[in-house]
Specification:
By secondary structure, the protein is α+β, with helices and mostly antiparallel strands. It has five helices and seven strands. It has a four-stranded antiparallel sheet, with no helix packed on it. α2 crosses α3 and α3 crosses α5. The longest helix is centred in the middle third of the chain and has 18 residues. 20% of the residues are buried.
């Protein structure tokens, strides 16, 4: 519900998420001074090259990803109205982006296993909300599309205590994409305390 922004008619009393956030006071690790954009300390491009060039690594990653989705998956909620709403929103997003939810989630899982990082950009708009009465969780337009990000090109901006201030997606053409924290979902695994990127398991066997 928090991801999509269900309005008062759907989810009960209205609340302002910006007024309930508790920020970190613990110092961050790495990344230079506060406000700088930082990339993963592990070269994620090298992780990708290792996957596509080493059959043992490819087989290991593929096996884990296969097991992750072996039993299938679905959304679940004790609130049937909320569940119907979420399913409908994902159907509309899949229709308008021409990316099935299955494909979106599987790619997200693959990146998570291989890179220990995966990210999704949330594109906002009203093109595909049908007759739903909904606004964005943070105000403004609701989510209209979800797209996986190549995590090798993702950089994160944090303040001195590690709170996320923004994201940057690098482009070969030079038109880098700068995004607000609420427009990116960054999932990490095996992330050291104080850092913002997860460390891939295979990084220790590359040499």
């Amino acid at each position: 519900n928090a991801m999509f922004g269900i309005n008062e008619k759907t989810a009960g009393a209205e609340r302002d998420p910006s007024q309930t956030r508790v920020v970190s006071i613990s110092p961050k690790v790495g990344g230079g001074t506060g406000g700088d954009f930082e990339s993963s300390p592990v070269d994620l491009s090298e992780i990708g090259r290792a996957y596509y060039s080493d059959s043992y690594i490819m087989r290991a990653i593929n096996k884990i990803v296969g097991l992750m989705f072996k039993s299938g998956w679905h959304f679940n909620s004790s609130n049937s109205d909320a569940l119907d709403y979420v399913n409908q929103r994902f159907e509309l997003i899949a229709e308008s982006t021409e990316i099935s939810t299955q494909e979106l989630v599987r790619e997200l899982g693959f990146n998570y296993v291989l890179y220990a990082n995966s990210a999704i950009i949330k594109v906002r708009g009203t093109e595909n909300i049908a007759d739903l009465d909904v606004t964005g969780y943070y105000g403004g337009d609701p989510i209209a599309g979800l797209f996986n990000v190549p995590v090798e090109r993702l950089e994160v901006q944090r303040d001195e205590t590690g709170n996320i201030e923004g994201y940057l997606v690098l482009s070969d053409e030079g038109d880098d994409l700068e995004l607000a924290p609420e427009d990116v979902l960054h999932f990490t695994h095996n992330k050291p305390t104080g850092r913002t990127f997860g460390v891939p398991h295979i990084s220790s066997v590359i040499d």
